């Protein structure tokens, strides 16, 4: 009993002290990223010459006023202001002043599901660690398992779409407070924390087939969703079309086919679909 009490105290301390641990990290300048919306204002001659909202492209570029195609990759808002002012001063205005603000932070987003209190999509203004994301989801549930799975989203060209999910030891991270087991997440990461396997549902199965790394039969767990099942199956293959995923469910007198766009689930546009024992999840091949 005392061991359980000590474990609970350690977990509470980790969450309570998290803002203190992260205070320095929050001071890190924000780097402009894809899909961010920027407000750009240009002053010259004591007057406002231009104001507009621009969305950063997937490749990190904007159509800058008076300048045209301009890369924001790796730049902070201050750096972008200075770079634009240099070009404008050279070719367009005398002593221009450029103001750049981030209107919408859309590049740093992470999705978490499974045994947490508030699963869903979370956006941040700085790089997030796994522990931060769990804290934003208001903590892990008591019945959570001992492993977290992190899947890199295949839509990012810099990531290997066939890579296996990263496994994180939650005993080290949450129970022992070992910060070396607290990986920094990458934008678009999908985190799944399964529940502990329960004996009364251990005989129930779900089936995952099609374009996943490890198609097969998996133990059903309460609260399991279509996306989390795909993560357990190793993630999507290179030729997967998760936007056309299907859940095949056997009813008493008929077979129900539920279509779900797992790309939209990852982006937080729609809710994930909760599975039932016996469900089959099929991930079709992408059209060439």
Which structural class best describes the helix and strand composition?
A: alpha+beta
CATH topology label of the largest domain = Outer membrane lipoprotein wza fold like
Number of strands: 15
Percentage of residues assigned to helices: 10-25%
| Domain unit count | 3
| Rg estimate, integer Å | 23 Å
Q: How would you characterize the largest beta sheet? A: 5 strands, mixed
How far is the N terminus from the C terminus?
A: 58 Å
Overall mean confidence score, pLDDT: 83
Figure out the total of helices. Answer: 6
What is the strand content?
Answer: 25-35%
Low-confidence stretches: 20-26, 154-162, 198-203
Cross-sheet strand order for the largest sheet:
7-6-10-8-9
Q: From the coordinates shown, what is the CATH architecture of the largest domain?
A: Roll
Broad shape: elongated
Order of helices and strands: HEEEEHEEEHEEHEEEHEEHE
Q: What is the CATH top level name of the largest domain?
A: Alpha Beta
What would you note in describing this structure?
This protein has 6 helices and 15 strands. With 288 residues, the chain is of the alpha+beta class. The strands form 4 sheets. Strands 7-6-10-8-9 form a 5-stranded mixed β-sheet, with helices on both faces. It has a 5-stranded mixed β-sheet with strand order 12-11-15-13-14, with helices on one face. β11 and β12 form a beta hairpin. The protein starts with a helix and ends in a 5-residue tail after the last strand.
